[in-house]
Amino acid sequence: MNILLVNPLCRRPVVLPLGLGYIASVLRNQGHKVEVLDINGYQYSEKEVEDILKNSDYDCAGIGGLTSTYKSVKCLSNVIKKFKPGVPIIAGNMVSTTHPGLLLENTAVDIAVIDEGEETCKELIRALENGNDLQEVKGIWHKKDGIIYQNPPRPRISDLDTLPFPARELFPVRNYIRNNPDFGLRCLDISAVRGCPYKCIYCSRPFGQKVTYRGVDSVIDEIRLLRKVYNAEYISFVDDMLLCSRRWMEELCDKLLAKRIRVKWGGSGRVNLVDRELIRKMKKAGCIHLSYGFESGSQKILDNMHKQVTVEQAARAIKITQDAGIFLLGSFMIGMIGETRQTIQETVDFIKRSRLPDDRLFFTTPFPNTFLYERAKAMGRLPVNEEKYLESLGEMSSTFLVNLTDFSNEELIILKKEAEQDLRKNCALRVKIQKELLRWKVRLGGLRICYADEGLKGAMKMLILKLKKKIFKKSQKNREHK
User: Fold this and answer.
1) How far apart are CA 261 and CA 51, in angstroms?
2) 314 close to 305: Cβ distance less than 8 angstroms
3) Residue with more model confidence, 180 or 269
């Protein structure tokens, strides 16, 4: 079959959609012709998208995206049906997993793939190609003659190493690298872990609570590929729970060092799963950036979230990470159930006391398929029209949708703004200084690596190249000024 995979407009193209990349690789391995319409990667206009969808030749269309892309997916499915009424439309990723019934009822999407899609899509496309009954395909919801059917769930993929690497070559990789210059390095993303064992009430846990890791050798092979093909200098692990297994992380660090793989990397951690020994090993193996989902500096709010961590654990994780020289970012939200002026101030004080470079707070937002969403429903805080609510989901640092507190809407918005202004007084300069220092450390590290591998001659070559670039830029500015 000719299959068109679509990445809808979401936000500034920084992270290449690895989910669609995996699906593309799997389908190509099955002998299908796959093309990608990366609307977000190219930032296409509506007119450009319509022209491409109208003039492309495809037997099936697949759209993947986050929950916040619901509105885009709805619009895209309508356009596809307008030009290709007989083409089946499949939706995947969180936009279909969190609310499949609502999606099928209110959009032109025909099939919703639930959770992991690699094995499901192989069986699904085969069924569509042969005209078989979709009732036999596990892991989907689908509609026929206006009736929505829910098929049995598909078991999780137990061996992630059986999956091919994402087909990045079908996407505008250069655009993603250009839009994500982490620490002045060429950055690309990798996924190594699926699942999370914790039960934070605001998280939808897209792959469930069972944690599955790729083999370390597979991950290292992919890193080598990205360095060779795209000259990647920094690898960002996009997984929610990269540090869930200490044994796996130590093996990754040991093999990166043993194989002398010269690459910088970073990812997400959890404050109750790190210690000084592990962080030092990660730093030695090339880790220069970690992010933690702190969410609050108030123990009361952390408990309300079922976060299963303490403020003391968070403070300790910050100290050992900063002491190791790893750049640290976190996320914090305001507006959780039970939030008060005191708990907000505790969060602000925690950020300032820890010297974190965070000056932006997110509004607590109930997403479908979370405990928080059900709590908000029970509290009568969600809009009656759930579809309109889904269409309004956006960037949570600025989009305010649901008030779960005893404050008025106006009060909560003002409190968030005041808290951010307080944090911003010294934070902006601190972030700039920290990032600039890290950039220089990375550059000097590059010289040291070059010296170790190629001797003084190699180090001098790199230094001369940097000086030439500076001189060229300066001469260009002088000519433009004249």
Assistant:
1) 44
2) no
3) 269
Residue 305: count of CB within 10 angstroms of its CB: 24
Whether residues 195 and 103 share a domain: the answer is no
Q: Are residues 219 and 130 in the same domain?
A: no
pLDDT of residue 427: 64
- Copy the structure tokens of residue 86: 């007989």
Residue 476's pLDDT band, with cuts at 50, 70 and 90, is low
R_g of the chain computed on alpha carbons:
24
Start-to-end CA distance of the chain, whole Å, equals 59
Residues 239 and 347 in one domain: yes
* Half-sphere exposure in the Cβ direction for 21 (13 Å, CA): 18
For the record, the structure tokens of 54 come out as 């109208």
Q: Are residues 295 and 373 in the same domain?
A: yes
Cα–Cα dist 203/348, whole Å: 23
pLDDT digits (tens, 9 = 90+) for 223-245: 999 999 999 999 999 998 899 99
Nearest 5°: the CA angle 175, 181, 184 is 140
DSSP string covering 83-152, please? Answer: H-TTS-EEEETHHHHS-HHHHHHHSS--EEE-S--HHHHHHHHHHHHHT--GGG-TTEEEEETTEEEEPP
Give the span between the Cα atoms of 11 and 267, in whole angstroms.
Answer: 20
Identify the pLDDT of residue 359.
79
pLDDT digits (tens, 9 = 90+) for 108-119: 999 999 999 999
Tokens matching residue 92: 């995947």
* Cβ atoms of 86 and 29 closer than 8 Å: no
Query: For the whole model, what pTM was predicted?
Result: 0.88
Tally of domains within the chain = 2
Round to whole Å and give the CA distance between 338 and 323: 34
DSSP 172-202: -HHHHHHH--GGGS-EEEE--EE------TT
Structure tokens at 404: 């779960």
How many helices and strands (H and E) does the chain possess? 17, 15
Q: Is 450 within a domain?
A: no
Smallest CA-to-CA distance from 60 within 143, 121, 139 is with: 121
Q: What local confidence, expressed as pLDDT, does residue 431 receive? A: 59
